[in-house]
Write a structure and sequence with these properties.
The structure holds two protein chains of two kinds. The longest helix of chain A has 31 residues. Chain A contains eight helices and no strands. In chain A, helix 1 crosses helix 6. Chain A has one domain. Chain B folds into two domains: 215 residues, P-loop containing nucleotide triphosphate hydrolases (Rossmann fold); 64 residues, 2-Layer Sandwich (Alpha-Beta Plaits), CATH 3.30.70.980. Helices cover 31% and strands 28% of the residues of chain B. Chain B contains eleven helices and 13 strands. In chain B, strand 11 and strand 12 form a beta hairpin. Classes of the chains: A mainly alpha, B alpha/beta. At the A-B interface, helix 1, helix 4 and helix 5 of A face helix 2 and helix 3 of B.
Chain lengths: 158, 308
């Protein structure tokens, strides 16, 4: 395997082995959809233009994943790695920082994507929601949160 | 033979502190070269400048003829690095860590034979954070060797380890040298430098105050050695005092103590006692150490150095 795929594989494994990261990046959104569905249901309401609560809001829950992943889970992981010297260990190798950043972003993107897909599946299958958004709009934001902080962590001196 | 490392008038400052102050030396290929000095002497800063992890202010550094700041990737393909303060990403096993770092090199070595060599064969599926300090240091050595480097940098490798782990790691370092690689290490353990290094540079306040082999450095300060022997009877101390190099001889009970200088002192004293046919046992010698060399050169104890 080349550096990109090895880093992506290891990064995926270590993310999924971290209970906090797994919960917030993967499990939180589907659980949130279940909770909102149980609380509010999806019966048509006038304030949502005769659409259900989940019809109107399900896709916007993806923003929560973006915020949790991009502003909490990813920065905490990066800061922890940087403080411990783990990122610096990579600097002592010929690895290009962009390779590490790309692999990390792809892994977080895919995990977030799976989480969002599960959330939408639960909303549509369990509560009959008909989300009012295009699929690609739902999936585009997740990587944006991790990239800038990773670039900072890999480049600045310790 | 091309020098593995060549430094010429290297300087590095942090604001008003000149951490490296005009250092010049060469590291020969195939040797274990020690950079020793108290905490805060500038050892790690110098090493990181050579590794290309820090930018020097002035001077020239060549690693196999290449500038580590400009030909960074080429230098890193040929060197292995163990950093003084580094960790690995959490939640990964030893095997995953080795796989991960092996993928960073264009032509990585097979890391599997490294595991038994470093006593880690039964730890390959253990999370790195679950390892003991000595085992973790051996993982870092494995990472430094993962590209089969021609030059290995080891920064305070054995700090914080128990004596048994330290001895085991010394054997590994000798094996690296015997395998043909050059080793540059920093340490503030004088015994480590004495037991491991072919040559040593003593650094204080960012300057090289001495550079030579350990015996030559110790010999250069003409320090006294001390020999104590348990004897039966009363040997004629005058005969011992007449031995070349002996400056003092005394007997307390059945213990004879001889102090003197010279590299042949012990042999000459033993020869004199053998000639006198004095039954003896429990021979002990105490010789000057690199600590004494540092004291003689700087007027300070090594441990008086300020923290980095």
């Amino acid at each position: 395997m080349n550096a990109f795929s090895t880093i992506a594989t290891v990064q995926a494994k270590r993310t999924l082995r971290d209970p906090a990261a797994t919960f917030f990046m993967l499990a939180f959104a589907p659980m949130f959809a279940v909770a909102m569905g149980l609380i509010f249901g999806n019966d048509p309401l006038q304030e949502f233009g005769n659409h259900g609560y989940l019809d109107a809001n399900l896709v916007s829950f993806a923003a929560i994943i973006v915020v949790i992943s991009g502003l909490i889970v990813t920065p905490v992981d990066i800061i922890t790695q940087r403080e411990s010297g783990a990122l610096r260990r990579f600097r002592a190798t010929p690895l290009r920082p962009v390779t590490y950043i790309a692999a990390d972003v792809v892994v977080r993107f895919v995990i977030s994507l799976v989480s969002i897909a599960l959330m939408i599946a639960i909303g549509t299958l369990a509560f009959g929601a008909r989300p009012k958004a295009t699929w690609w709009a739902s999936c585009s934001p997740p990587p944006s949160g991790s990239s800038p902080s990773l670039r900072w962590a890999m480049r600045s001196p310790p | 033979m091309t020098a593995a490392v060549r430094c010429t008038d290297v300087t590095k400052s942090y604001r008003d502190l000149r951490a490296v102050d005009g250092i010049s030396f060469e590291v020969r290929q195939g040797e274990i070269f020690g950079i020793i000095g108290p905490n805060g002497a500038g050892k790690t800063t110098l090493l990181e400048c050579i590794e290309g992890l820090r930018t020097r202010d002035t001077g020239v550094i060549e690693v196999f003829g290449m500038d580590p700041e400009r030909q960074t990737r080429e230098v890193r393909e040929r060197t292995g690095v163990q950093l003084q303060s580094a960790a690995l990403p959490t939640h990964i096993t030893v095997a995953e860590a080795l796989d991960l770092f092996a993928s960073c090199y264009a032509t990585p070595a097979d890391w599997r034979p490294l595991l038994p060599r470093l006593g880690l064969e039964d730890k390959r599926d253990t999370y790195v954070e679950k390892l003991s300090g000595g085992q973790r240091q051996r993982v870092f050595i494995a990472l430094a060797l993962i590209n089969d480097p021609d030059l290995v940098f080891l920064d305070e490798l054995t700090t914080g380890l128990d004596p048994q782990s330290r001895l085991a790691i010394w054997d590994v370092i000798r094996e690296i040298r015997d395998g043909g690689a050059t080793v540059v290490l920093t340490t503030h353990f004088m015994e480590e430098a004495e037991r491991l290094c072919d040559r040593v540079a003593i650094i204080d306040h960012g300057r090289v105050v001495a550079l030579d082999t350990v015996p030559a450095l110790i010999g250069s300060i003409a320090a006294e050695s001390r020999i104590t022997i348990t004897v039966s009877g009363t040997p004629p101390l005058d005969r011992l005092r007449a031995v070349p190099g002996v400056v003092h001889a005394e007997q307390t009970g059945d213990r004879v103590t001889v102090r003197g200088t010279g590299t042949r002192l012990a042999q000459d004293v033993m020869a004199a006692l053998a000639e006198l046919d004095v039954p003896m046992r429990d021979l002990r010698t105490e010789q000057a150490t690199l600590e004494d060399v540092f004291l003689a050169l700087t007027g300070r104890e090594m441990r008086e150095g300020t923290s980095a």
